Amino acid sequence: MGTKNKIYLLIYAGIIFSMPALLQNNYHLMVLNVAALNIIVIIGLNLLMGYAGQISLGHAAFFGLGAYLSAICTTTYGFPLWPTMVMAMIITGMVAYAIGIPTLKLEGHYLVMATLGFNVIIYIVMIQLDSVTGGPSGFAGIPRLKIGTLAFDSDRKIYYLLWAVSIGTLLLSLNLTHSRVGRAMAALSHNEIAARCAGIDTQTYKVKIFFISAALGSLAGSLYAHYLTFISPGTFSIFYSIQVVTMVLVGGIGSLWGSVFGAVLLTILPEALHAVKEYNVLIYGLILMVVLIFFPQGLFPGIAEALRKKTTDGPLDSRGPLPLKKGI
């Protein structure tokens, strides 16, 4: 990871951890906590879309698997909290691995269909297996997050934990994309045939990225369950999968900093539009349409590119688009 990213991370962490001092409203903290959880999911999804070139419509299922596995094991069977969350990540990753081995060999949108079907199946299981999951009524009584004697029993306390995990996820992902493995992933995303000719096992890398992506979704799900102490199937429907894909598109495919930007923007925006609740869906849709039409590479990379061109005093349309640097 370059010096520039380290500086950006320090500034970013400083801003994030100073926010609770500026926000006295617990509702605002709750929205930011949800944004932190979304960032974890979207960084994983962006690794899959930006580097493996695959779109998943099943990340709500991975999010839900982490939530329900952690909730059921800790609440019903009394498993220790943190080891259970790790176990849920491994199980969810292995499920993704099993789905990815056959589908990632195919071209086109087969993974989209496979993950869409998987999401529907998991959603139905959550509803029908009511003796275990609580069914449509949901699953309550989930223990709160705790480290030793420190219980994260308020929005303000858990804010620091969730954002520390999201920043840690960003840090690890940036290191991954700037490593030898990351260079192989970048080659895969630019031209799979050329990468294969260069001796890169593209199939193995795709499956590994899918495993990591699903595991991060599971981690966010576990944190979500123990944060709210109640979960229900509606949270993990196909609509959440579409929402997180939209966040990746708005932030910029292949841009990890864009993942942060897209997640925060599209988590806060619906809440901000409550003031015009009669038209909030229309305004939300118009904003997304404008972003995707005028910034097809993503809002964050588009703004960064415009600023770079402006500093060179050249007209914005005098040259071709600059290449998107992975992981920035």
Short account of what is shown:
The protein has helices at residues 3-22, 26-51, 59-75, 81-103, 110-128, 130-133, 155-177, 180-190, 192-197, 202-228, 238-251, 256-272, 280-294, 299-311, and strands spanning 139-140, 146-147, 150-151, 230-231. By secondary structure, the protein is mainly α.
Describe the protein in words.
This protein starts with a helix and ends in a 17-residue tail after the last helix. α2 packs antiparallel against α10, α2 runs antiparallel to α12 and α3 runs parallel beside α5. The chain is built from 14 helices and 4 strands. β2 and β3 form a beta hairpin. The chain has one domain. The longest helix has 27 residues. The strands form 2 sheets. A two-stranded antiparallel ribbon has the order 1-4. By secondary structure, the protein is an all-alpha fold.
The whole-number mean of residue pLDDT values reads: 88
Bulk shape: globular
When the domains are counted, the total is: 1
Helical percent range? over 70%
Q: Structural class, from secondary structure content?
A: mainly alpha
- Total helices: the number is 14
Strand content: under 5%
The total strand number stands at 4
What distance lies between the first and last C-alpha atoms, to the nearest angstrom?
Answer: 10 Å
Give Rg in angstroms: 20 Å
In order across it, which strands form the biggest sheet?
A: 1-4
Element pattern in H and E: HHHHHHEEEHHHHEHHHH
The biggest sheet, with number of strands, parallel, antiparallel or mixed sense and barrel status, is: 2 strands, antiparallel
Stretches where pLDDT is under 50 for at least 5 consecutive residues are: 316-328
